[in-house]
Design brief:
Blueprint (H helix, E strand, L loop, with lengths): L41 H8 L3 E7 L5 E11 L2 E4 L1 H4 L4 E5 L6 E10 L4 E6 L22 E6 L7 E9 L3 H8 L12 E2 L12 E3 L4 E3 L11
Antiparallel strand pairs: 1-2, 1-4, 2-3, 3-6, 4-5, 5-6, 7-8, 7-10, 8-9, 10-11
C-alpha cells in the first residue's frame, strides 16, 4: 500500500517556493550570519536551525529502504520536503538530530510541478521548533545562503554560498526553448555545494529563514 495522500493542494508559491500555507507557524526567531563590520556567525545559525532538519527514509511494501532525502519542520507534526522524495513510498520515516525515527503518517499537500510536499508526522519531534519561512521579502542576487541536508548515509552536512541567479519561469522557458514551467514562478540558483540526498532540505538566508526547499543539481529547479 502506498503512503496515503490526504489531499492535493497547489501551493500559492509567490516567492521562491517559500511555503505560504495559512496554517504554518512563523517558526523560531531567526539568527543572522552577521552584517556590517560584524564577523559572520554561521556556526550560531547552524546550531539554531539544524535541529529542525530531518533525514527521510522511504521504504517499499517489503520494508526495504529504497530512497532517502531531507525535510524540515514547518509546523507541529508537519514537515516539508520534495515530492519526489516520498514518491512510491509504502512507508516513510523522519529522523531529527535528537530521538529516533518518527513515522510519516500521510501526505497533507503536494505540488507535482513544483516538486513540493508537506507531510504529517505521527508524533511531534521533541523540543524542535518549526523553521521560519521567507514570505514577502525578495533576496538580492549575491545574498549569502546556507544549504543543509543529509546526503546519502552521512550525518547532517552544511554548505555556504550565494544566490547566483534568480530567473523566472519565463526566463527558463526561453532559455530551453520550451514551456516547461509557469512564466510567473521564480527560481533560484546557488553555488552552495549540494549533494545527492539533500533533496528537500532547506536553503537558509543570512537572516535564518527558509528560502526554498528544492535542491537539485545546485539550483532551485530541474527540467
Amino acid at each position: 500500500m502506498a503512503l496515503h495522500t490526504h489531499r492535493t493542494f497547489l501551493f500559492p508559491l509567490a516567492l521562491f517556493f517559500a511555503l505560504s500555507t495559512s496554517d504554518l507557524t512563523q517558526g523560531a526567531a531567526p539568527q543572522s550570519l552577521g552584517t556590517g563590520n560584524q564577523a559572520p556567525v554561521a556556526e550560531d545559525l547552524v546550531e539554531s536551525v539544524s535541529p529542525s532538519v530531518c533525514r527521510i527514509k522511504v521504504y517499499d511494501e517489503h520494508g526495504l529502504c529504497f530512497a532517502q532525502g531531507t525535510g524540515f519542520l514547518v509546523a507541529q507534526r508537519r514537515i516539508a520536503t520534495c515530492r519526489h522524495v516520498l514518491e512510491g513510498a509504502a512507508r516513510a520515516t523522519a529522523t531529527f538530530s535528537e530521538g529516533g525515527p518518527i513515522e510519516i503518517s500521510h501526505i497533507l499537500a503536494q505540488d507535482k510541478q513544483r516538486d513540493l510536499a508537506v507531510a504529517k508526522l505521527q508524533q511531534p519531534p521533541r523540543e524542535v521548533e518549526a523553521l521560519s519561512l521567507m514570505r514577502q521579502e525578495i533576496p538580492k542576487q549575491g545574498s549569502s545562503v546556507m544549504a543543509l541536508g543529509y546526503p546519502l548515509s552521512l550525518a547532517l552536512t552544511v554548505s555556504q554560498g550565494i544566490l547566483t541567479s534568480m530567473p523566472t519561469g519565463a526566463d527558463i522557458n526561453r532559455s530551453v526553448g520550451s514551456r516547461l514551467l509557469n512564466d510567473q514562478d521564480r527560481f533560484i540558483q546557488t553555488d552552495a555545494a549540494i549533494s545527492q540526498g539533500n533533496s528537500g532540505g532547506p536553503l537558509i538566508t543570512a537572516e535564518g529563514r527558509v528560502l526554498v526547499n528544492r535542491q537539485d543539481c545546485n539550483c532551485g529547479w530541474r527540467p
